[in-house]
Amino acid sequence: MEKILLDGASMWARDSGKSCCFMSLSHYPPLMTASYRCFRARSSLSCCNSHADDDMSALFQILPCDLRDTLLCDPSQDQLVEVILDLGCLPQAHYIDDSGRRSLRNTEVSMEEIQCVLKEIGQFGGDNRAGIEGTLHRISAIRNRKGEVIGLTCRVGRARGQIDMVRDLLDFGESILFVGRPGVGKTTVVREISRVLSDELHKRVVIVDTSNEIGGDGDIPHPAIGGARRLQVPDPSMQHQVMIEAVENHMPEVIIIDEIGTESEVHACRTIAERGVMLIGTAHGEQLENIIKNPTLSDLIGGVVTVTLSDQEARIRNCSKSVLERKAPSPFPFLIEINERDYWIVHRTERSVDALLRGKKPLVEVIGIRTLFQIFGHRPITIEFCSLPFQLIKCYEDEMLVGTRSKPACFEGVENQRCFENSEVEGATDLHD
């Protein structure tokens, strides 16, 4: 698979020693303010689709026989996110990037099938989650009013996450908060980070594993977390206590915590940050603005308070006298929005929060990976880009800008924009061959 490194000025491809300029972006008016940071193309990316590491067979083994056979023969099983078994409904499978779910058969799920699955998994905790010992898969239950399980969500746990895009940030030793919607891959990322920090950077890493989702079910943690140590949490309501216990008893350099969601956990994060320990955490939300507006989680980014400005300051800022401002330093200097598994936005938390509260666009880094086809003899090419506006990337994919001489509608009015109009660029005329 070929690789292309993109930066804010130009797009380049390399094939058999040839270089060809895709187009100049130097005059493109950015759709968001972005700092342009080039980084080297890596020789290999972490693979999140490894069947051996993900142990898919262990998950399929607990399912009814016909569903197991269907999934084992499915060529898209490396894209599988979850299997849903609801009483009286068709069993369904959810895949990455699918707008909906696929039905696995034409008959409804019976109570007997649900009971058979329950016998193959561990006990449910207070958060209605269970696991399969020795794996990273998670089983979540839906109960009726009598407390009986009538539905199961069988989530696939991935052993390898895509952290190459932010590998350099780990060298700073600063705390990082990952924000994203459920199912976008936050837990997989922090699991891989725990391995990199412990095995490659030789840090003392302690994972506070509330529902055994990071280190897997059972007393022996999954090898995917590397040399990191794991503290299991007896009850979800005790997560903040175990976080403080980890600092006081085990001398960690790094603490990893998944799904920060209560005021006590937020307060524990602030306390740990003040003690000089690096934090890696996750929280639910699509973007930074969601955390700012969430009264429970807003202290993760420093908190928000209403202040009254003097007349002179209000005139200087050209705003009303009552404004919102960040009330304290953020325990997480970096915040990363995981919008898609291969499209992330990196914030310097305090700068971005201050800008958003003043109604300005924050300075961010947009990093990710895209794959385009029908290039260089219809072979897939991975595009590794940094700090390009997302709308531009979508246009680039949708209209197949590569190899065309015409200017897409979205570039109308952009001066000096050109696509392969320079015949002197080596290889530019060979793209359709």
From TrEMBL:
<dbReference type="InterPro" id="IPR045735">
    <property type="entry name" value="Spore_III_AA_AAA+_ATPase"/>
</dbReference>
<feature type="domain" description="AAA+ ATPase">
    <location>
        <begin position="172"/>
        <end position="320"/>
    </location>
</feature>
<protein>
    <recommendedName>
        <fullName>AAA+ ATPase domain-containing protein</fullName>
    </recommendedName>
</protein>
<keyword id="KW-0547">Nucleotide-binding</keyword>
<dbReference type="InterPro" id="IPR003593">
    <property type="entry name" value="AAA+_ATPase"/>
</dbReference>
<keyword id="KW-0067">ATP-binding</keyword>
<dbReference type="InterPro" id="IPR027417">
    <property type="entry name" value="P-loop_NTPase"/>
</dbReference>
<dbReference type="Pfam" id="PF19568">
    <property type="entry name" value="Spore_III_AA"/>
</dbReference>
